[in-house]
Design goal:
The complex is a heterodimer of chains A (310) and B (280). Chain A is an all-alpha fold and 310 residues long. Chain A has 14 helices and no strands. In chain A, helix 5 packs across helix 13 (270-298) and helix 11 packs across helix 12. In chain B, helix 4 (69-105) packs antiparallel against helix 5 and helix 5 runs antiparallel to helix 7 (140-167). The chains are: A mainly alpha (310), B mainly alpha (280).
Chain lengths: 310, 280
Amino acid sequence: MFHYILKRLLQSLIVLLGVLVIVFFTLRLSGNPIDVLLPPGASEEMVEIYTEQLGLDKSLVAQFGIYLKNIFQGDFGTSYYYKEAVTGVIFERLPATIQLTLFSFLFTLIIGIPAGVYSALKSGKASDYIVRIFALIGQCMPVFWAGLLLIIVFAVQLNLFPTQGTGSFRHLVLPSITLGLYSAATTVRLLRSSMLEVLSKDYIQVATSKGLSKRKIVWKHAFKNAVTAILTVLGIQVAGLLAGSMIVETVFSWPGIGRLVVQSINNRDFAVVQAVVILIASIYVVINLLVDILYSIINPRVRLMKGSSK
Amino acid sequence: MIRQIVKNKVALFSVLVLILVVLFAVFAEFIAPYSPEDQHIESKLLPPVWDENGNSSFILGSDELGRDVLSRIIHGSRVSLIVSLFGTLLALIIGTVIGAISGYYGGKVDAILMRLVDIVLAFPFILLAIFVIAITGPSVFNIIIVAGFATGVNLARVIRGEVLHVKENDFIEATHSIGANNFRIIVLHILPNIANVLIVIATLEMANLILLESALSFLGLGVPAEVPTWGKMLAEARTLIISNPWNAIFPGLAITITVLGINLFGDWLRDYFDPKYVEK
């Protein structure tokens, strides 16, 4: 157990380092990072500050060293556009994104789990088909279009929710549903097939022949095993929601880090973009690590299996 | 195969959708009633023809510059198809090379390649695409490269698993023993055996790439301004959504139906190749 966790931890650290390497070299891919980090026509003074800060007059290896040192000290540089530390700019907007992501995940669970179980129990019946068609369409719709449709119906036509912005719980409803739609649809499809697989197992037959109530069989025996099987995917979805927030926040003018990235790209404020990219990728890696550890606690077979996970 | 498709209603629907989209893309100039850039100043922001204010010469209405929505949707299919087709081809090449080498040779090579794959996969797909496009600049070529690379790395994992599976067969060992070299074994004996899986996942990835391209276009990171794309049409419609919701409907419908068609076709292909296949 301890050995497995240590191994996964080490792997995650390597991946994190790799993330930093990729970001570093992508920024230098296009030549002088100053051209990317600062908008055209930036003042001499700014150019000098950046050259000094990033050590651009030094060798590539030295630059990478400075870059790593700054990041581990939590220094992501100064935003050209906001004229303040990048970390400050991000932390100001992070709560809004976390709020949105959490509510979307809640939506995913509230819709995805009952619908997935229901669909599996009614397998082959008309109601199963209806759930599956909805799930399929949910996976094929572009997220931003789903958002626009929700705005048209619930904000413009019915006037139930505001079209954009933040401030109250009512502001949170449409963006959360939009962001959660795809992962809810994915959850329905995965949970359905996972449930069907579990329900065909021998121990379910045993439980049935013991005369246990259907409710007990479904929730205690089948659901528990089915949901364990899709736990990894659920974890990845949280991270996916974070990435999807870039689109959803743009649709609803939600003041989080997703919208910040898109705006910063338009402002050519790449110190901010770089920091958010590193932040989201890191959260992604950490969530994956936590899910794997949790999974290995729930399902001992994983840690007994050979070598690398997945 | 064709008989099978005609028998299956869902497969028939998906193939018809795909044929229609391809026809749109190839013959856009002949099918579209107007040029996508023609501005009909006297008929701005028209609703579709079935609305009481509709105009029969603009079947799906017009946008705020008086451009015909139907013509723009027909022309918009081009970028979507080009990106998804070439992106998927590139992904297949990258994925097959990495996956085959990793799965076939195993050991250290495998460990190193798979760690590299892990690193790329640590970036959510859309985030990586946005980051790279923002730096390299938006163009069809750059989008294809980024999409193909990120998807290819994803495919490498699946292909590696398949190669591992096929490698265990006796006929591989037999081929080995009559002196075939590794390259020959991989290309002539292993890849043909995983071709079915490759075709299915490639089809499903095409759908993903259409969604990716539309998302990039929507965020303003798609192709240059003058080319119409479905994502860009939705971005433009968003600003006028309260007064004119119609413009926000049809481009999204085009994306959804295309993606649905490709996904259904992919699902059908999977069943066709392997009726026993259980959805993972």
